[in-house]
Amino acid sequence: MNATARNEDGDFAAKVALVTGATSGIGAATAAAFARAGARVVLGGRDRDRGTAVAAGIEAAGGEALFVVADVADPRACDRLVAATVERFGGLDILVNCAGIFRRGAVEALNDDDWRATMAINVDGPFYLSRAAVPRMRARGGGAIVNIGSDWSLVAGEDAVAYCASKGALLQMTRAMALDHARDGIRVNIVCPGEVDTPMLAAEAVERGESIEEARANWGAAVPLGRIATPEDVADAVLFLASDRARHVTGAALSVDGGATAR
């Protein structure tokens, strides 16, 4: 069955979810999944045309969605994004920090701009958004924050020093926030995907001189379950961690990597 046609069980009726990086890939799939499950969804991203199209698709399927242009590297934009969510839907229950970038390079080859951009989007953005979201969630008696990390939050990868550092930092931020806000009723967890069939993977394939089909096959061959993840695989994990079924789960890192880090 096409993932966009799946039925959800309404776990998130009356909930408000904010998803960054929602113009494509994991973010778009997660926003759509929350909407199918009954949530009112705000999508954040930098590409107005793509974000508007994702929001329109959600509404055409019967959901409620708002797209807001926002660069998560800008703290003021993050504040505005959270404020727009509360203004439109009356509060905020769930934050998914999905926006991220990948810049390849070992330490001596990576330039300052690529290092800073990676940290600004992959680490600073979740910090700014969480800082703005926590008081709103506390006012509603609790909430859930789900960060999108990577298998490289848990293990290192070659020629990716900035990305590994940023996703490792996001894991530790998740754990620290889980402790800080447990008594506020705010659970904070991180999903750690391996390779996912997204535009980021397609760009990596081009950089390696491969077709997307070759990249899927080559990376999938290295995964114990025999394939790379789909955006919907990751979205399902996010929804679980944001749901009441995970009510006693906080500070956790959930691998969605087909068993790759089990080796």
How does the SSE layout of this entry go?
Elements: E1 16-20, H1 25-36, E2 40-45, H2 48-60, E3 64-69, H3 75-89, E4 94-97, H4 112-139, E5 143-148, H5 161-181, E6 186-193, H6 199-207, H7 212-221, H8 231-242, E7 253-256
Parallel strand pairs: 1-2, 1-4, 2-3, 4-5, 5-6, 6-7
Helix pairs in contact: 1-2, 1-8, 3-4, 4-5
Strand count, sense and closure of the main sheet?
7 strands, parallel
Overall, the morphology is globular
Oligomeric description of these chains: single chain
β-sheet strand percentage? 5-15%
End-to-end gap: 31 Å
The count of helical stretches stands at 8
CATH topology: Rossmann fold
For the record, what CATH class applies?
A: Alpha Beta
Residue share in helix:
40-55%
Task: Indicate the mean pLDDT.
Answer: 95
Query: How many separate domains?
Result: 1
Account of the protein in words:
- This protein is α/β, with parallel strands linked by helices and 263 residues long.
- It has a single domain, classed as Rossmann fold (3-Layer(aba) Sandwich), CATH 3.40.50.720.
- It has eight helices and seven strands.
- It has helices spanning 25-36, 48-60, 75-89, 112-139, 161-181, 199-207, 212-221, 231-242, and strands spanning 16-20, 40-45, 64-69, 94-97, 143-148, 186-193, 253-256.
- The protein has a seven-stranded parallel beta sheet with strand order 3-2-1-4-5-6-7, sandwiched between helices.
- It is globular, with a radius of gyration of 17 Å.
- The two termini are 31 Å apart.
- Residues 1-7 have low confidence and may be disordered.
